[in-house]
Protein 1
Amino acid sequence: MGSRAPEPTPPEDSNDDIHVLVTGFGPFADYSTNPSYLIATALPPYLSLPSLPKIHLHVHRSPIRVAYKTVRKLIPALLFSPPSKPPSNHASTALNPPQPNFDIILHIGMAPKRKHFAMEARAHRDLYKGKDVDGQTMSGDTFWQHEYDAPPMLETGFNAEDVCERWKQSVEDEDVRLSDDAGRYLCEFIYYTSLVEHWRRDLHDAERRVMFLHVPGAAEREDVERGVRVTEGLVGALVGSWLGGARRRV
């Protein structure tokens, strides 16, 4: 538990398997242990669930540093491959656009004061005033607004209500909820970062297959095992909802 996970690998194109990138955070403030990464690294390498294709779970090799600059630099390269050259015999010399490295992105973070698990429906661009582990804030930052003309708020491409209902059914003994307040700290910041990276590449709204999971702050062995069960349930709900045709309600 808590050991370094292997480097995430992009999906192969040879089958219908689903590939999910999972990230968790490192320590911050008074929390020397962050259960989000303990849960992520305790996940199995794949899930075999009834009526669904094989789901591969690719856990990022290290906990994400709780720092704004780290997130803004790391996430774009993690989610998308760089533009590639066309085959030598191709008529066009234009680079192929960046392609998503994974089918679904699941970020996990801790909410120390919560006792329940929550999937977040949306994330905001501005007003990140809390200090990160480097003592920095994003107060007054206008990068996304000026560089991308990005909207003040972005929502997941999943139909959050449908996913949450499926999630509840898969973990009936757990308190799992849908939330629209991700906290305006690094959890919401990484969520918006992933959403805006999809948005700015002109992917359709429904192609933002990104989700954020908040877990309680407890980090004992039984808490991590509980978190793994709940996370597996959410992954199954995400895949089932998507393949079932549910999309974000506009």
Protein 2
Amino acid sequence: MSTSVWPPLPREQLLREEEASTVIPESEPSDLRLTAQARELEWLLDSLQDTLASLRAGLEECVALLAPREPGSTLVLSSSRSDSLKGFVTRVGTRIVRGDMHLKMHGLPVSKGFTSYRLTLAPSDAANTLVLGQLVEVRNLLDRSLDVVDVSTWTGDAKDASFISGQLRLLSENIQEARLALRGTESLGRPASPSATGWADNPVDPSLFEPALPENLSFYLSVSEAALHLQLRTLESPDAPAASLTGFDFRSRLAVAIGAGPRTPAHDEADAVVAYRGESVRVRDRVRVESQDPSLMAMMAKLAALEHNVALARRTLDVVMGKEET
């Protein structure tokens, strides 16, 4: 498709019009003469203010998804192919405020009136709750990102291309770190290694539970791929005899021998000895489950879109500024 002017203009007049559209007339002072690239840069910096306003709106939506609003998000926790774990937890903002779980794991007694061990998460007050450190980090990064946008819009020099470029780089880093924090460092699809001892390095406060968390039970809750990832482990001394059902009576042992009773599940941490609460322990039994959190999934998708938009703005600004791509 082409456009033509009728009646046609002489070539000399066309050249004069093109020159007038790209530079300031000669009558203006020399310090006001702008090249076409400088004008494009000025226009781009103005348009980036609209982009920053859109980014601010997206970041505020992410903050709202993580706001501590009642009744919160109630998430089911259930082992897929066994009755090892059945229950739920309720997340409000960055905190777990309620939880009720029934466990069938080797080394745990049976609660009175139940066929499993019941573990209730019942914090006594708001100051003594189970806090998800990854979500706290995400919230802090979102606050920093909003500060960057505000400085770029109101405080700093919006006409300074180098300043805006630096602010966009900082914004990109904060959003990327927030998204990676939601992804987490562990996944159910990847077997845990003996060196992955986050559960041992950050033990939960036993007083958050009713009854108090047993000394031989490790409770570790984290965020992985925008889902809550719960790991439960029963522990024993490394010097304990490697019996399959230590403490069970003869009838239980006989049931196992003929294949009618439960067997100790095999896992890849059985031979690892780790330090837990100042003592060396070995993992006897382990259960890992995850529960998808719709609010965290929506936030992760929004952060990915925001990261993409910031990358486009940075790339466009670099091209207009004449920077080489790195």
Protein 3
Amino acid sequence: KDVNATNAGLSYGWYEMTFFTRWERNHSIILCIDTPSNTKSMLETALSRDLSTLNLMDPFAIYVPLIDHIIMLYDRSIWGIRDLIRNVEKLSKSHKTREKNYDFELDFPRLHEISRHSIHCCEVLTVAAETTSQLTAEQKEVCTRIYQPPEKLPRSFDTTHKHLSFQMQFIRNLKFRSESNQQRLQAEITLAYNTIAERDSKVMVAIGKAAKNDSTAMKTVAVVTITYLPATFTSALFGMSFFDFSPSRENQSNEWRVSEKIWIYWVTALLLTLLTMGVWLVWQYSERLGARSHGLSKRRLRAEEIQKYASGMYLYDMTR
């Protein structure tokens, strides 16, 4: 798989390659299906260059240049994903050095796409390593069965075996690189989540401080209100028309008079106070009653679901 970054997102292409081989003594045929466009020219170049050293008496010798080309494709794919992950690491590092709180946003869908391609590469490399390992074991077994006794086995067969073993180890190393890419990407995703959580916690701390300041301001308002409330009530009470004060004159001293209907004020104030408290208590009781009935209805529905499930299980057991 080739993965590249574009302005529109990630572009990738799958190579679902299939190979069929037929071997006769000193003659090998290989059929390549769904290979990249440059595979034919590269194989022709490799075969013409190594034809003198390629032992066609070995049925598995033809796989050597083919696997070399496949390893080159794997290597390009793995390092292409590595470049994408490195760009993400550079992005987070640049924000971290520019700001102490490294407040930055990552494209999580893009990270998910990179992770998906990285997982695919790990899967393909695992299969390739197992296939190459099986080819190496089969090469030794088949060649030993063709040439009896084993002492007649030419050295070129051992060269092919060593080359296949090297290719198998190279593919495993690429798999380790792919797993490392996956771990690095997961570390960046974890860093992003932790950064967002840290930023949210700072926001919550700021909100808490603001709420504390508001609480202090409200406490100050409450203290000031309580301080002036008795005086306000006294001035409002004596400012009513139920009280009459006449200052002293030439032949008359100060006179203070209270209306006989002052009881109307106290009765009205007491009734309004009781009415307000009653309305508040009724509202509180209705709220609690509604919450209790909602909880009972939920429990009733849950009990009905359990009863239906239990009855269904019973009927099922009866039919059995």
Protein 4
Amino acid sequence: MAEPKLLSIEEVAKHNTAKDLWIVVDGQVWDMTEFAPEHPGGIGSILKYAGHDASQSYHEVHSPSLLPRTLTTSKLMGTLDTSTISDSWSKPLPQQNPKVQLQNERPPLSTIISTHDFEAVAEKTLTPKAWAFYSSAATDLVTHRANRSFFDRIWFRPR
């Protein structure tokens, strides 16, 4: 097996658009260009880290083995050359401030009569990261569709 290609931070940083999107996770450089539009959490959560290290954000939501299991080895571009890491590369990317949601902006609980209503409120009140996690599903969406089918049968009170 060939030695993984060493890639500098300058090389990785060039791939920072939706049409050419690389991220670094645990020192491995992955080409996410084709996968990002299909990502259950949305392309934005990957595009935010395009050309950068996404390890911390990735591990907050995914298991370590997900990338190697999901993507083919052809998407593994190489290994980050740690000798090229600078202070600016090591700084975390600016985080989006969570949206402040006031209690009176939520609808009264008495108006929520189905799981779809709960989902609509959750989408508006959760942080974008939490919403991406809770609303996503496996790549094939089989479990997501099955759960939706079962939950569609639940009504909290008749109309």
